[in-house]
Amino acid sequence: MEPYMSLTIHYIDCDFTIKSLCLQTSFFPQDHTGEAIALGLQEALALLEPARGETNSGSNVVKAASLNKWVRLQCFGHRLHLAIENAMRDPRIDCAVGICKKLVSSFSYSWRRKRQLAQAQKELKLPEHGLKTECPTRWGSRQAMIERVLEQQRAISQVLLSDRKSRHLIPTWQDTDTLEAINKSLQPLTKFTDALSSEKYVSVSFVKPVLHLFSSSILKVNDDGPELTNNIRTKILTYLEEKYKDPETQELLDMASALDPHFKLRFVSEDRVTPIQARLLSEMAASVSMVKKGPSDGGTADRAEDTLSTSKRKKTLGSFFKITERASPTQPPHQEQAVASELQSYLQCADLDSEENPLDWWREHQRVYPQLSKLAIKYLSIPATSAPSERVFSTGGNIVTCLRSSFKPENVDRLVFLAKNL
């Protein structure tokens, strides 16, 4: 077990730009237990106020989030990968994929067959692409392998037919139908995995709309379609709905979606619209109260400075009104109405175009919706997948190697920061 552990965070700065930061590199003399990680996270986030959204599915991280009483958002990419694995549990699929793997392996370890495949591709006017091998840890690699085999099926058959010992590797029509059913079901899903794994734009607000898109069109069962395709789609959709039906997760996704000018309350169920609006108003009012309250020490120092400067110069008529206003302890009138008006104005404005960046929109409308923009920074900074954090971990692993294992944590922080930002 590595002695260092990088605690990373996604955040949106005041200019509404997403940044991924190695928040702290901690030295763990003991194992990476849930208790140790929970304590490290509390220390690292003591001065920050994120939305407390975790996207890592490791058992120790799950326990750490539970100990800190944080809402844990499951990594969408990992859950989609597990949903696909669950849907692939079928004897027909096992047989067809097994043949596909053997076929790809026979070309991977034979330069002669690679050359024959290239010649066949030229003769049949097929794309000169190599075959792809499945990697169990890479999402969508099985679909990529199947898609390439189907694309080069005629060239592969031509090469294998010339060798009696390899003719058994040619897929039968039943295997071909199975591979086509798998490819048809999985091909659209890989695009969503890649898109939601990015770290340069908002992704958490798209989780619920994507799930709705899956159920309404992409994974919708077609009565006229193949039975195997419908079975795969049903299993994937059922698995995803089961994993994201937790009330706390639903509330987090609803809040993120509501603060995205693309969607607002469009994908919030009717029975949840009123509670989500109430929570938005509550958090907006709390934000206003914190701003109005301010630091007590700073206010006392300002009053002392003002008193000193006032005593030195001659008072004007306006200064008496200024003192009276400052001494008044009452809050600005109609504060609740102002917050409600801000939320209502936001919900009634035109939706943002689907290709536009929501952070650019919030940057332009930050002064129009001052309290909502703070909530947007809080919620939209949560990544939908753990891919950005894993990239930071990989960067840390490349820096702290066996030959460079005596780094102090602060030096690892600096090197990871430079590697990610230069």
UniProtKB/TrEMBL annotation:
Pfam families (UniProt xref) = Dimer_Tnp_hAT
Record-level Gene Ontology MF annotations: ligase activity
Q: Which InterPro entries match?
A: HATC_C_dom, RNaseH-like_sf, ZnF_BED_domain_contain
Q: Which UniProt keywords apply?
A: Ligase
On whether Ligase is a keyword of this UniProt record, the answer is: yes
Keyword Ligase, does the record have it?
Answer: yes
User: Where is each HAT C-terminal dimerisation domain found?
Assistant: 342-422
Instruction: Give the protein name, as stated in the record.
Output: E3 SUMO-protein ligase ZBED1
